[in-house]
Amino acid sequence: MAYRWVMVSMLLCVLPSSAGAQDVNGRLKVYLDCNDCFGDYIREEVDMVEYVRDPAEADVHIIVSTADTASGGIERAVALIGLGRFKGLNFNLRAISQTSDTEDTQRQRLATAITIGLLNYLSREGVKGGLSVAVEQTAQPGQAAPASDPWNFWVMSVQGQIAMAGEESSRELDLSAELGADRITDEWKITMGLEIEHRREDFDLDEEEPLRAVRNERDFDGLLARSVNDHWSIGGRASIDSSTFDNIAIRLFTGPAVEYNLFPYSQYTRRQLRFGYAVGPYFARYREQTLLLTFRDTMAQQQASVTLDQREPWGSLQAEVEYETFLPDVSLYRIQLEGDVNVRLARGLSLSIEGTASRLRDQISLPRRGATDEEVLLRLRRLRSGYEYTLQIGLTYTFGSIFNTIVNPRFGQ
Questions:
Q1: Count: domains in the chain
Q2: For labeling, which of 92, 151, 316, 407 is most exposed (least CB within 10 Å)?
Q3: Which domain holds residue 186?
């Protein structure tokens, strides 16, 4: 089946300035809710509506969510939610882009999807004068779908990076590499990723030899998952890592895993409540003798998590609780909570809370010897701690004109 594209163009007559208020009141009011959806471009190109800065003033609330596709591309899911006189009138569309697409192509496809969705609302109250629509649907030459996929849905990626910084008395070198391999279909999800990082810092402290700080990290993660139905998934996890910061020469975990989503997976762009569990053997070999007077550990580990992700007109909520413990010694455990909440309290007033909190009772890899002053200051060794936390609270109040349509690019943004 050939790839097809749809182009929708519109022209809306603008009334003289003396009738500006009447024109504004007669146009569809839209609130655009997204973090990375080419907001200025959308407001400039999809100009047959009036954009407002508060959802309380909108007729339509547009939520754009971004996710990776099986082929390594980008899916932007567009949810149009009717408000006020359009309450209950909701539509969902998708704009798919490939990794080879330019940014201009990506934003054009998103603008087309939003335009098509808005037409449903504009047509509900009758097509008014001054509105013209042109639709063209053709097969792009030379882009017929292949009869077979020689890669069998596998997508590989390789990335390398080198960064240098310095001044007269100090120098820093960062080397990193990432390798990835994914195979994603409706039934199976296979993901593998390897990250390698080397950081070196040199400091001239008026001594014979400069002080050198080196930190190395290696991390491999793999997942194999099989779709059972619209709520259940089964599979297995594997991880291998090493870290000079954590005193780990090599650490390995592998085992079966299961996940249950309270909401159907098809609603992933708006809401998810997932419960996950994995259990399996754990092995670690350390660079130095640990606090428990050992150079290695072999035991079992279990991991459980609850993840909530929801985006609604009132705001967004993302939260995750993770619990890990060793077996049979359940006194060695870790509980971690992460949360990010954005709530619209009233017209123009919004509250944001972001934070993490951890209870640590599983730091079995800490070295027996104490850390030197240099290792503490340069963050070369993990220190013993019973807890960790971060917290950020913000309150935003915006007032003035409700309209947010005009884009003026002069002197930058």
A1: 3
A2: 151
A3: 151-218
